[in-house]
Amino acid sequence: MSKATETVVKMIESLPEKAQERVVEELRDLVEDARDEGRWDDLFERKKAGLVAAARKARKDIAAGKASDMDYDKL
């Protein structure tokens, strides 16, 4: 356990039990958000090359006059 984590645990332990429960619930939410962000970052990193290639192709198509405005009614 890191020093920062130890410090936070000691801070939480110094609170009344009800306050500890509220803080722990908030921490659970924050940890889950951090996990979600990590998964998103991993997914984006794996898909990054494909996104860059698609953007390059779109630029080429636009420059060559092969692109047209998106028709949102056809989506």
**Main pleated sheet:** none
- The coarse overall form would be elongated
Rg from C-alpha positions?
24 Å
Number of helices: 2
* Rounded average pLDDT: 94
Low-pLDDT stretches are none
The percent range for helix content is over 70%
Q: Beta-strand level of the residues, as a percent range?
A: under 5%
Topology order in helix (H) and strand (E) letters:
HH
Oligomer: single chain
Count of domains: 1
Coarse structural class: mainly alpha
Describe this structure in words.
The protein has 75 residues and is mainly alpha-helical. The chain contains 2 helices and no strands. It has one domain. The termini are far apart.
Give descriptors for this structure.
75 residues; mainly alpha; 2 helices
Give the helix/strand layout.
Layout: H1 3-13, H2 17-63
Short description:
The chain is mainly alpha-helical. It is built from two helices and no strands. The protein has one domain.
